[in-house]
Specification:
2 domains, TAF6, Serine Threonine Protein Phosphatase 5, Tetratricopeptide repeat, mainly alpha, 2 strands, single chain, two-stranded antiparallel ribbon, protein heterodimerization activity
Amino acid sequence: EINAEAATNLAEDVSYKLRQMISTIALHSEMMKKSRVDGSDVNTALMLADTSPVVGACAATYAPIGDEKLCCQVESLLNVADFALIPQSYVFSTLPTVSVEWITDEKSLNNNSNISVNLQNYYTKVARAILNLRKKPKEIAVEDLTTNTRIGPIFPNLFNLAVLVLNDDNLNALNVPAKKPLQSNVLDMVDALCSNPCSLDTNIQQQFQRLFPVMVSNILGNGSLADKMVTILTKITRTWPSFIAIGKGILFDYLSQGTKERLTAPMIKCVLALGRQALVECLGEHLDHLDEC
């Protein structure tokens, strides 16, 4: 037994649902040019509302009584406990749908709030595809990042993602089991961004200053992705020549503070990624210092 307040609230809710269903049925009947409503209209409205089946609902059945064949409705009694304990499975037949979003955002990069909702949704979906270890979603995302010229405002977000994933300490803290495949996907993303036509018009200097040391650290560790990172660094410095000065500052400072053992083959690869001129300057400015150590 329920109290008066609960009954009132329940009645209001039921009344609203009934009015909503009647409105849907009326609209459907009007569109179908029907002059009368039958049970199929109710079923159609329930199907369009994606309403779950009600356990115990069934068509009315009748049974003959006596010699005169009088018919009366048979009341179905259900064992609620049995229905609750037995798993019920229902299959809904739905048509496949396709969602298409046009990205037209060309706002400033200085404030993330200037990024449109569609572009934010795009970033979320692309990030999930890149971090997905399945091959096909990643390939589709990389292909779009290479050619989509409307994604300039989220370049910093994508580079921040690269910095996060390429840092082994971050992945260790998150207990990520498959680090190398994940980092390989992110490098493919960075490669795609460097190939994007709008990359030349995008200011990512701050992101590069964070990304460069992370990649150099991985290269000096001579990991399995070292060669791939050298290739990406070379492409970055060719795409944004102004970053060569940033890279030289970081590498030359690292060399000047250590011994000659720091001038290793991986370090030479890092310097070569900045161009031959950078290598000449490196040897000219720091070789004497290294010999004295």
